[in-house]
Amino acid sequence: MRWLQLLTASLLPFTALAAKKSSGDRFNDFRAQSLSHGPLKLDDSSYTQLTKAPRDYSVAILLTALETRFGCTLCREFQPEWDVLGKSWVKGDKKAETRVLFGTLDFVDGKNTFQSLMLQTAPVLLFFHPTVGPNAKLDSQPVRFDFTAGPQSAEQIHAWISRQLPADLPRPAIHRPINYVKMVSVTTAVLGVITFIVVASPYVAPILQNRNLWAAFSLITILLFTSGHMFNHIRKVPYVAGDPKGGITYFAGGFSNQFGLESQIVAAIYGVLAFATISLALKVPRIADSRAQQFAVFLWSGVLLCMYSFLLSVFRMKNGGYQFWLPPF
Q1: In terms of residue numbers, what domain contains 215?
Q2: What does UniProt give as the signal peptide span (predicted)?
């Protein structure tokens, strides 16, 4: 019996050595899992096993909190991008030349790890460089990427990880899965638009080709913007203002200031002037009765004179040094 005990004791070191996996074995085991599942789903134990030294491979680990009770919207928005990056990298690196593994550690599964790293926010991306081998780094601490700029795309994180790798290693490209639902939706929408155009064109085309409609639209747009509409939106000017006597001031002093109601009054003046000019040029010549035509000429000419006189008086109200005027205002 004593020789049996001695034999068992002598075999213990070899048993422990066999049970302890090398860095290469760990890489092969984890890579085999990622080939079918994409980024590895980790817990405290597997995180420690994956990142412990010695390590002749690189590891990119996303520490996140996906459950809705944690309220991490950024975590849930970025997770699909992370999955696309991990699967694309593994499929593109078929010969494992880069020796990079991707993993995801959720807070629910890795509370001890979060506490040991003293993490207060999520998500956080850690990149562990190799500790042994030709690409080993002297500093064994991981490189950290914080999502301070908001959600990141798979391409942006791919560029960041690529900067961590030696220049002679390949960078597998990202291949996004085909979104068949989006393709069907876009195709259906395009066909629907085409069908609507074909069916509605006999009714819509005459409206769109109407010269009077486009003339009215152009005139309204010109009057709107020449009266200071955009100035009001940019400067956030008041609609009206009070005067020292307790009344209301409709016009702001100075040519670089104006009120909201003032721009509407000026637009109305421009509109009346434009309508009077159009009537004199287009409508009056078509009047067959000479007396009615003569009356229309005097009428629209009077409207032009009065409105332009009022416009000049507005200029004088805004700036007392304005020299031009016309009767009756």
Answers
A1: 210-318
A2: 1-18
Q: For residues 31 and 160, state if they share a domain.
A: yes
| Chain center to CA of 11 | 64
Say if residue 328 is preceded by a cis peptide, omega within 30 of 0: yes
Residues 155 and 42 in one domain: yes
What number of other Cβ atoms are within 10 A of residue 39's Cβ?
A: 23
pLDDT band for 277, please (50, 70, 90 cuts). Answer: very high
Q: Are 193 and 204 in contact (CB under 8 A)?
A: no
How wide is the angle at C-alpha 169 spanned by C-alphas 168 and 175, nearest 5°?
Answer: 135
Ordered alpha helix ranges (H), 209-259:
211-226, 229-235
* 85 has pLDDT over 90: yes
Q: How many residues does the chain have?
A: 329
Tokens (6 digits) for 168 = 């002679």
**Do 149 and 238 belong to one domain?**
no
The answer to whether 58 and 165 have CB atoms below 8 angstroms apart is: yes
Least Cα distance to 76 among 61, 63, 66, 86 occurs for 66
Residue 319, pLDDT > 80, answer yes
Tell me how far apart the alpha carbons of residues 258 and 254 are, in angstroms, rounded to a whole number.
8
Q: Is residue 115 part of a domain?
A: yes
Query: What integer pLDDT is reported at residue 24 of this predicted model?
Result: 67
Do 79 and 66 contact (CB within 8 A), yes or no?
yes
Query: Which uninterrupted H or E stretch holds 116?
Result: helix 111-116
Q: Determine contact, residues 150/74, Cβ cutoff 8 Å.
A: yes
Which CATH number do you get for residue 71?
3.40.30.10
Number of structural domains, the chain? 2
Are 127 and 164 in contact by the 8 Å Cβ rule? The answer is: yes
Please give the pLDDT value at position 79.
93
Q: What is the pLDDT of residues 187-215, one digit of tens each?
A: 999 999 999 999 998 888 888 889 888 98
* DSSP H or E run through 236: none
Within a domain: residue 262? Answer: yes
Spatial contact of 106 and 65, defined as CB atoms under 8 Å apart = yes
d(CA 251, CA 263): 9
pLDDT of amino acid 176: 87
